[in-house]
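Predict the 3D structure for this chain.
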Amino acid sequence: MPLLLKPVDASRGPRWVGDAFRLFVRKPLAFAALFAVFLFGAMVVSLLPLLGGVLQMMALPLLSLGFMVAGQSALLDGQVHPRQFIEPLRGDPARRRSLLTLCVIYGVLAMCILILADGVSGSAWGRLQRLLAKGEAAQPEIDALLAEPGVTTAVMLGLGLGALLSVPFWHAPALVHWGGQGVQQALFSSTVAVWRSRGAFFAYMVAWMGVLLLFGVVAAVVFAVLGVPQLAGVLGVPAGLVFSAVFYLSVLFTFNDSFGGGPPPSAVDTGQP
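Done. Predicted structure below.
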């Protein structure tokens, strides 16, 4: 697939989010099931001693690329299925090695960030992650932990370094899979593409924050009117599943606009390939 790096206007940022939601509603059950399958696999992997957490992190580039492959298939009225997570690994050996190398690099660097954040917080970061996994039941403990010195610093450090790590890896898996680029070239190209379109990506992040804030407010108001505000948290799991799937679908549109590859975004609106 010929790829051409091009700058993207800032107005495209919110459109990426809208395109992803429109694509999701074309096959909602399939995309939700796709992310649920990944979550199940990640849960199984987490049971492995020592390596479980690292393998979970290493799988994230394949999660992103798998959703891009599935999204492209849906744009062309094709099927969406879990095998699309491993479809990129079934190509030529060179691309497979590059993708696996990306996964290893990402996993190691992500774990280094988590270890650093945990050290800064005096091991409170690790406890916070475990409490967050319990959900609403652990909210009082989460609030108490967030009040501890160093935890806020660790959270900000983790989020900041995580955002920096995402820049070179944002487009890299797709550049290897569809563009045939090597590891170093893909990481460099992704970094340049995100920087050149930084206005669009800023608007994209703002749009996502707006979507999440709007959902939270609407859910709280609706359940308050119904007299059961405590049930607002019940929507957290299905909403998280949907928003996560839509987020990974939106990555496809950021790639299409940045490199001119894949199906045109207009296919979402017209329903035509």
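Residues 12-270 form one domain.
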